[in-house]
Amino acid sequence: MATRVPAEVPDGGWGWVIVLAAFLMSALVFGIIRSFGVFFVAFVEYFSEASSHVSWITSTAIAVQQFSSPIASALSNYFGARPVVMLGGFLSSSGLIFACLATNLIHLYLSIGLLSGFGWALVFTPSVAAVCQYFDKKRTLAMGMAFTGVGIGSFVFSPLFQYLIDEYMWRGALLVIAGMMLNLMVCGALIRPLPLKEDLTRAVAPGEGSLCCQGARSMIFDLLDLSLLRHWPFLTLVLSVTLINAGYFVPYVHFVAHAQSIGFDEYEAAFLMSVAGVMDLIGRLLSGWFSDLRKMRLVHILILWTMLTGLSLLAIPLGRTYPVLMLIGMANGFCAGALTPVVFSLLPEIVGIGRIYGALGLLQMLESVGGLLGAPISGWLRDVTGNYTASFMVAGAFLLLSSLFLFGIPGALSCSCVLPARHPQTKNAEEEEECKSMDGSNISVLEEQCVPIEPASIASRNAEVA
After folding, report:
1. What is the pTM of this model?
2. Residue from 371, 345, 340, 373 nearest 359 by CA
3. Whose CA is closest to 271, among 166, 391, 156?
4. Would the pLDDT of 455 be above 50?
5. How far apart are CA 124 and CA 27, in angstroms?
6. Run of H or E including 399
7. What pLDDT does residue 217 have?
8. pLDDT band at 154 (very low <50, low <70, confident <90, very high)
9. Could you tell me the sign of the dihedral formed by the alpha carbons of 417, 420, 426, 432, in that order?
10. CA 317 – CA 328 distance, rounded (Å)
């Protein structure tokens, strides 16, 4: 039986269930990653290792999660998002269970860093792509609501993890969290596939042929959508997000340790992360609401939040009293939260919704360099200088530099130029390549070249697919 193809993105309906599932998944994945700074202190004390060595646990997990995202995209294109997310939930839980048995840091690198990190990749990328597919006009708001799970998770998990460590030691705490991770499988079961015309027409575009008739090499190329590596606006965004990642996760690894190093007790330090988590939640919702008003271009909003997040990181060493440090942490949480949904909403505007799985996978993989190096560089600076001042200064500098690279996205220097929606079907192969290599000089001709498909053509191609 042929799958019914929606005439357009529904902007709601079952999409709100997808948003709920993505909310829970973001809480269980990134809420836990952000709260892992509580375990950072316990690991340093138990294994008697340098801060830079322990920092590699979280950095490895983040890097593997991002570097493995193209695999998640390819598997989702082939099998669908639902089974991929459910498998990811199982692997995430398994990694934390094995971590309970660790006797040295290498075991934690392998269990949490590699196994759980790979599971998180299978969860995160398909869930974000599913939300993008179900929404258009309300996409940024939907993304903001889905990512509020990160803020709520940060608020709840930081004191919860500290309590679990006090009651059951870090091994018992990891075992409890592993049980929580199994809920990712339930969330994955809620994802319902949504075939769109853009996906189907792209799959049968002239000159490409059927996927099953291509060789294994061409099949992998299409599943991973590697043609995006020739897409300059996409690569500009990737470079900017990589620099963001180099500083973005530093406070979630070292903010608790920094607060303890200047004289605050462990619960006061954990509460700082909880308050920052609440502000993160508010920032995501307000950013999503404001972005969908279209008063400003998404790229300009992203530049604004990136700069403010960088400035808040530079200000963290200035907080020597608890109220001041809390205010700075609140500002950082708000700006960091507001930044995230804009990144993922800007991506479909650059590459088109039909290529969202491949684009998300490649974006996550290429930006993994920043996530891998950011926290260890911060930890190394802490070991060299004896405090976290240089760590936060360098992290803030990475985000400020990223905001400058964002001006390289076509039209970013103009307030009136609107980046046109990408359509996967063009008049011919040469024009498609010209659309893919879009720069500021040919934005005006895109609307003439990237023409819509005639309804009769769509109907015939859908019949072929069926």
Report:
1. 0.67
2. 345
3. 156
4. no
5. 11
6. helix 389-405
7. 66
8. confident
9. positive
10. 9
Tokens of 199: 């996906």
Measured at the CA of 207, the angle between CA 201 and CA 208, to 5 degrees, comes to 60
Lowest model confidence (mean pLDDT) among 278-282, 314-318, 424-428: 424-428
Residue 266 pLDDT > 60, yes or no?
Answer: yes
Element (H, E) at 325: helix 322-351
Q: Tell me how far apart the alpha carbons of residues 162 and 153 are, in angstroms, rounded to a whole number.
A: 14
Q: Which residues of 171-191 are buried (b: 16+ CB within 10 A; e: fewer)?
A: eebbbbbbebbeebbebbebb
Q: Which two tokens stand for residue 191?
A: 């994802």
Q: What is the pLDDT of residues 222-254, one digit of tens each?
A: 767 778 888 888 999 999 999 998 898 888 778
DSSP class of residue 8 equals S
Quick one: tokens of 393?
A: 């200064």
Q: What is 212-266 written as a DSSP string? A: GGS-HHHHHHHHHTGGGGG-HHHHHHHHHHHHHHHHHTHHHHHHHHHHHHTT--H
The percentage of the chain sitting over the pLDDT mark of 90, rounded to a whole number, equals 25
Average pLDDT over residues 257-275: 85
> In whole angstroms, how far apart are CA 216 and each of 190, 200, 223, 383?
31, 20, 10, 48
Pairwise CA distance, residues 63 & 86, whole Å: 21
The tens digit of pLDDT for each residue in 8-47 reads: 667 778 889 999 999 999 889 888 887 777 888 888 888 8
Give the dihedral sign, CA 232/133/292/285: negative
Compute the residue count for the chain.
Answer: 466
**pLDDT reported for residue 295:** 84
3-state DSSP call for residue 445?
A: helix
DSSP-derived letter for residue 387 is S
**Helices (H), ranges, 35-100:** 37-47, 51-67, 69-79, 81-99
Q: What is the pLDDT of residues 73-83, one digit of tens each?
A: 888 888 888 99
First to last CA, the chain: 7
**Contact 178/93 with Cβ under 8 angstroms?**
yes
Question: Which phi and psi angles does 210 have, rounded to 5°?
Answer: -75, 145
